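>> received
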Amino acid sequence: MNKRPNILLFFPDQHRGDWTGYRGGPLQTPNLDALAARGQVFNNALTPSPLCSPARACLAAAKAYDAQAVRHNQHDVDPAEPNIYQALRNAGYAVLGCGKFDLLKGAMDWGEDGRHAGALRDLGFTDGVDSAGKHDFVTAHGRGRAEPFQAFLDQHGLLDAHLDDYADRTGVDNRMYTNTGPTPLPEHAYCDNWIASNGLALLDQAGDGPWFLQVNFNGPHEPMDITAAMHERMAGRVFPAPHASDQYTPDAHQAIRACYAAMIENIDDHLGRYVDVLTQRGELDETIIVYASDHGEMLGDHERWGKVVPYQPSVHIPLVLAGPGIDAKPACSDWVDLVDLAATLVDFAGAERPTGSTGRNLTTERLDGHKSTGLGTWRAVFDGTMKYVHNFPAETNGRGVAGAFDADPDAPCLLFDLAEDPWERRDIARSDPGRARRMRDALLAETGPRRRL
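>> returned
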């Protein structure tokens, strides 16, 4: 490959790894499936931390959760700390982004232009439009904080309708999920459609040099707000029921899952749209396309919702790469994560990895060995088919994510054989104490014994 490639990163929010078409999942994702067929799929991709800001900060820094500073959603990435966006810009790339970055989430200072009064450029972006996530949008409006999607809806006379709709998607009875009625927004004003259009507008300004574009979709994050047309598309579709859950009626679970699926399939439509544009521009063969997500979604499995817990639906993400320099290969089953993806993208650009990067190149380096993920009080480590979880406060359902991890060797633990027990129903830590101890030791060697993080 003589010319440095363009890089397009499709980065939806909260897309769990088993909900795709290319793995035989319940979705119709023909564009993602085509990407997988001509590139490389990583079946066991993980988030380094199952929460928005930490996961995205790990990607930015190319560092594991415990090696960087963003511990939870109230922490922002420090532009003074080296990151991949600065590395790409320093290597001569136009570095572009749109949608929900969540790198400066705590500051809530997007501004109507989404440039954070210049802070976006400090992070390494040459241009971009950072917008709030679904819940932050409402919070920002209540606090009088300007934000670009808010300004767009206001310009089109749709802001009050959107706010009123969201007011009915919060509160008791888990209405962020159980309210599956359509949004009042028309197709052109639906947030993910608006984000996709912003990305294409940025491409029009990219120039002739190599470019990097990260498109951060809001979906399929809750609430389950989809357009009327997306509802029609789901008519008659049947999805797998949640595992070990009878929290709601089967019909209610189906309605929730249909909305989740509709958001993913809508993003897949946009992937096809971008491929068409790149083809028309004569850039498809010069562009590496990546599809990944910041973390997964429990979606009612084990009667849990959202993320922040160490179970597979929360920590497992899709990861597909295709383009110049990436040969079509059988799916890789080694444990990899977003930190590895970050290092890979910087290498493809011929840029210098951020200082202290802990990632591995997904196409040129050995990927065997253990891989860890964590948040707040708990950590988990994967090795082969085994998964060890240390100090997870299961009774809290993962709340208290800002808590400190105390690497006490005697802390409560869980051990699962994912080959025999993919739904993590049988903790075998007591029946296989030797394996649990070895995986604990590997995990604590990485985090530091009895070190508070």
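>> The first helix runs from residue 30 to 37.
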